[in-house]
Amino acid sequence: MQQSTSEVLAGRATDDARPSPPLTYASTRGAPGRRIGVYYLIEGISSHAVALMLSSIYFYTTGRFGWRSAQNFLLAAVLGVIYVACALLAHAITSRLGRRQTLVAVYLAMSAAAAVLAFRHDSPPLLAAVLFVYSGLSAISWPALESLVSSGAGAHELSRRLGVYNCVWSGAGAVTVALSGALLKYWPAGTFVIPASWHVLMALLLIGLLAKNRGAAAPVETEGSTSSGHAHLEAEPELLRVRTLALWMSRLALPATFVVISSLLAAMPTLPLVLRLDPAARTVVGSVWMAARWVAFLVLGATVWWHTRPRALLTAALLLLAGFIAVTLRPQWLPGEPELSTGPWLLWMVGWQVVLGLALGLIYAASLYFGMVLSDGSTEHGGYHEALIGLGTILGPGAGALAEKVGHGDPYWGVLAVSTVLAASVVACGVVAIRRV
Questions:
Q1: Which among 20, 205, 314, 420 is placed 20 to 30 Å from 397, CA to CA?
Q2: Domain 31-435 has CATH 1.20.1250.20
């Protein structure tokens, strides 16, 4: 059945009154600590692999193939299209196979894809083709993992779990991208050998977990919630209203965060300041915003003040717009000749990356938390969350690539186009904040 746009944005909040599907495998009561810890381990190592393949890859294409921002933008946009399509299929696939079984199959396929590039990584067409496959597989994996981490938790426990979840993936990604410059400099093939190895190891870990459960006579998992009850339905009407408003605002802003992230990842390696740096230092400077986002996740996971302040998301959206422009464009009033000076510009860029990372962290955390608390940790919601991420990856780099083509390769056109998309998201968040009071 076709769903309306409002249902997708609201994470099917209209379904909240319906009872959960019957549980088809043993409750996680008594085992969440151990089991959730395994999922965090899988998440962290998989995030390391995905960051090498999909985040730092633009430093690879720029350094090895000489690609400019327009080519990186185009690659990112196509990856986004595939990501959206596959993220929306995640619920159907996990419903048929089960979440952990799905992850086993997906990780083995991701390992095979990365292994192809480990042996042949000097062909741009082959690189792009394999990344298309890898991106689609990645989009299927995250909703399943998010649901496994979220299932069976009340509102406050869910906030804590997702706080840890966000710190794990963002921390792994930040460290990976920061160190990827050294890897690209001294062992380029490692960009693909390491993910191929990690994914197969994670698949084996999950296979062992499944075998252990079967040995304990636990029923086989199918897709179904392990929720201990619709915790959000127990909330007072005012709290439910606040959560719904926060979900709408965060989901309108979530594509904007990945407009910024995907555009920044594609453009960062080509910025004049970054090109002047040593290859190993480029990724360190270019990953400051990731470290700041990790700090935001750490704070948000340990606090609950943001649970009842949805309009903080509007401020975060405004900071996204300002931060992206500040990081990508060198202000003319900074001292020194643009061709020679790096100090003032470097401080400016690093400072605004911190602001950018904090804003990104709030919007992402809100989208995942409020969606999961309103849908009882469903894989279906995880699919919507990831699809909106993919939508941002299409809109930002797509607009940048098109604008640079129109502007005859001038990168300023790309920044202007991406900023226009971000401005539209800020306006949408403002309208929702006003109309849904």
A1: 314
A2: yes
